[in-house]
Amino acid sequence: MVREFWLAVKTWNKEVVMDAIELGFNGILAQPEYISQIRQLARVKIISADPNADMILGSDVFEIYLDGTNIGETLKTSNSNAPVILYSDDWRVIPMENLLASRSNVIQHVRSYEEAALSFEALERGADGILLETSSSEEVRRVAHVVLQLIVRLCLQAFQRDSTAHYLDRAVNLRFQFVIWHLI
Questions:
Q1: What is the pTM of this model?
Q2: What is the pLDDT of residue 33?
Q3: Dihedral (C-alpha) 153, 158, 159, 165: value to the nearest 10 degrees?
Q4: 19: CB partners within 8 A, 6+ apart
Q5: Which of 14, 54, 61, 133 is the most exposed place for a label (fewest CB within 10 A)?
Q6: Per-residue pLDDT at 44
Q7: How far apart, in whole angstroms, are the C-alpha atoms of residue 144 and residue 160?
Q8: How big is the chain by its Cα radius of gyration, in Å?
C-alpha cells in the first residue's frame, strides 16, 4: 500500500487545509458540510460519511476505537482490504506491533509530530498511514517534515535494493513529486 497522509478536519480552517494539501497530504477526513469547500480548494481525496465523498466511512474506510476493553482484538472489518483508521486515547501503551501485524492498511490517528514519527517507526514497516488531527498549520508543517523524511528513506532503500529503472517506478509510487517539490 502506498503510504497515506490524511488530515482530519473537525472544524473548518482554510489555512490548515490548504497547508496540508500544498504539503502533500493525500486525503482529508471531513464533516459532510465541508466537502464542497474542500473541493473548491483542490482535487484531493475526501473521506466522509457523506455519499458524495471519494471514500465513504463504513464501506470504503472503517474506524476502530481502542480502549482498555478491546486492546487484544484484531482489526477485522467486512472488507479486509479497506483502510482502517485506528483511534486510541493512549495508543503508545497498546501493543501496536501486534495490531499492525494483524492486517495491512492501518491508518494511525495522531495529534502531533511526535506521535506521527512513532507511528511510522512501530515495527519495521510502521503504520500504513497517518490521520493527523490538528488545528495548527505549524503542526501540519512539522508532520509533513516527518513524511518527507520517510519518503526519502524509502526511496533510498529502494535504490539500494533495486535497479535504477525499478527505483524510478517506486519513487513515483511513493509520491516522489512531493520530495522534489520540497527540495526545490
A1: 0.78
A2: 96
A3: -140
A4: 137, 140, 141
A5: 14
A6: 95
A7: 24
A8: 16
What are residue 2's phi and psi, to 5 degrees?
-70, 135
Q: Which residues of the chain have pLDDT under 50?
A: 1, 93, 123, 176, 179-184
Cβ proximity of 120 and 126 under 8 Å: yes
C-alpha cell of residue 71: 486492546
Tens digits of per-residue pLDDT, 45-64? 999 999 999 999 999 999 98
How far is it, in rounded angstroms, from Cα 142 to Cα 162? 30
**Cβ-Cβ contacts under 8 Å for 107 (sequence gap 6 or more):** 4, 6, 61, 83, 84, 85, 86, 127, 128, 129, 130, 131
CATH number belonging to domain 4-145: 3.20.20.70
8 A C-beta contact, residue 27 and residue 42:
no
